[in-house]
Amino acid sequence: MVIGLTNDDTISAIATAVGEGGIGIIRLSGDKSISIADKIFASNAGKRVINTPSHRVLYGTIIDPENNETVDEALILVMRAPRSYTCEDIVEIHCHGGPVPLQRVLAITLGEGARLAEPGEFTKRAFLNGRLDLAQAEAVIDIIRSKTDASLKAAVGNLSGRLSEQVKGLRHAVLRMIAQLEAAIDFPEEDIEEAAAADVAELIKQADLQLASLLATAQTGRILREGLATVIIGKPNVGKSSLLNALLREKRAIVTDIPGTTRDIIEEYVNIRGIPLKIIDTAGIRETADVVERIGVERAKELVGQADLILLLLDSSTPLATEDKSVLTLLSGKQALVLINKSDLPARLEVAEVEKYTAGRQVLKISVTQGMGLEQLEKEIVNMVYSGQINQGEAMFVNNVRHANALRQAQQRLADALTTIEAGMPTDCIVIDLRAAWEKLGEITGDTVGEDIIDQIFTQFCIGK
């Protein structure tokens, strides 16, 4: 971990979302934060910011030093180092939340010696100053972008250090293996290298089980973080747009009895029992001479290849048609649920015939207009995401692709070390593989990560965080 910053700049940025609001916040961090605030703030009680103890609030007005003009009423919150988010002196200026007062106050702080913060620079300073490790810092942006309670819980869990603790535990275990082997190398007269290698082989197997357990949560974690990419497909007029509206619980898509109403792609997020679904309604898949509709059909087929889950709709009131069979062929190699819609109408579709084309996939009877089967559909989606095994309220998830890749690479390095042991190769070769695994695990917490990766991670943050 790199401790300390390479410069002593004081940074300033608007920390609240753009737009109108009751309160807006300008945040400063750095050695000059308190002195800058002292120059531009007049307390109604005559108190000075520079003399204010940490974690105290003052009420007064922001004054433009150039013309002594009152800009806005404000509260000043002082947080002195190291008891702050960045471990530096921080001042937050709480004023009215309109764009004009916020920009005006920000400009005044910049005029008094602060510079505009880069995206994510406050959190980057928190990381560089040792308050957060890299996995915890990345959890901050996951919290901001959470789409459901479940995704928020997963992000908060990682911010609290659940993932970091497990990764650090694994790193310590690998480090003990390295120490055990190096001790054997240092004392060749004891003739313990073979016994040490055998002990390490067992420890590698135990570590591999822990890595496998962590990686088993990666798919679910990614879905909670990014959303389950779900595509609704079927022939025209089978009820795709009606299903989208039912899941959203609002009339988002146009629904008519005219086949081919949906020509473009409609994308929305929907919360299914805590799981964010990035759900996409597509054009009905059929042969058509209409140029616009044909483009929509081709786009629908493309999206099927990118989806995490496909919801394929069939019409219970009509026999299985050639168009239906064509759509069913798109399911090859994909996770899908087959939904027989309009099940409240007299049935003309044979379920047994449908099952010939579904390769054992779940087939559910639903009626979107009557609300029949939708609860069962939601249950099946939840079971797919959690594999019916994980208690989402208590579980820790690997929800970051970077983390998952590092874990997989660490697992591979441990496997290489085990192969090296089994091949009877020199102890030095085993140590090389173990050190590689130790370094890969360190990339998750930031202990062994390069500056370029750190910079890339924090550019994903908004300015002010």
From TrEMBL:
| Annotated K(+) binding sites | N237, T256, I258, T261
Could you say which cofactors this protein requires?
K(+)
Q: Bound how, and how many: what does the cofactor note say? A: Binds 1 potassium ion per subunit.
GO molecular function terms attached to this record: hydrolase activity
- List positions binding (6S)-5-formyl-5,6,7,8-tetrahydrofolate: R27, E92, R131, K465
Keywords, A to Z, come to:
Cytoplasm, GTP-binding, Hydrolase, Magnesium, Metal-binding, Nucleotide-binding, Potassium, tRNA processing
Q: Where does Mg(2+) bind?
A: S241, T262
Residues annotated as domain TrmE-type G: 227-386
InterPro entries hit by this protein? G_TrmE, GTP-bd, GTP-bd_TrmE_N, GTPase_MnmE, MnmE_dom2, MnmE_helical, P-loop_NTPase, Small_GTP-bd
Protein localization:
Cytoplasm
> Where is this chain primarily localised?
cytoplasm
Which annotated residues bind GTP?
A: 237-242, 256-262, 281-284
Family under the similarity heading:
Belongs to the TRAFAC class TrmE-Era-EngA-EngB-Septin-like GTPase superfamily. TrmE GTPase family.
Q: Note the subunit structure.
A: Homodimer. Heterotetramer of two MnmE and two MnmG subunits.
The UniProt function text for this chain reads: Exhibits a very high intrinsic GTPase hydrolysis rate. Involved in the addition of a carboxymethylaminomethyl (cmnm) group at the wobble position (U34) of certain tRNAs, forming tRNA-cmnm(5)s(2)U34.
- Put simply, this protein is called tRNA modification GTPase MnmE
Recorded source organism is: Sporomusa acidovorans (strain ATCC 49682 / DSM 3132 / Mol)
Q: What is the lineage of its organism?
A: Bacteria, Bacillati, Bacillota, Negativicutes, Selenomonadales
